[in-house]
Amino acid sequence: MFTGLNETLYGNGDICGTKYSVTCLGAVDPEQPSPCRRTKTVTVTVTDSCTVEADGEPCSTFVLSAEAFAQIARPRAGLVKVAYTL
Predict the structure, then answer these.
(1) pLDDT of residue 60
(2) Taking the CB of residue 48, how many other CB atoms lie within 10 A of it?
(3) Which GO terms fall under biological process for this protein (predicted)?
(4) What is the pTM of this model?
(5) 72 contacts 39 by C-beta, under 8 angstroms
């Protein structure tokens, strides 16, 4: 499974191939129920950077592949709060 990173974390690309453990912490909107799955953590490999989301907004920290996101949260959630470690 893979991820893109925002420009701050991606830097000059030396981080490509690095593995991160990404954990779903909950909904971005505290009024919404938690979208996290029971398996809240997934390991992903950095493959690319991301500057702008499809909707034109700046990239969040991680842009997980659909498969990776579905492992930790309900896909329709779109955005979730995460914690990450190397």
Answers:
(1) 83
(2) 12
(3) systemic acquired resistance
(4) 0.90
(5) yes
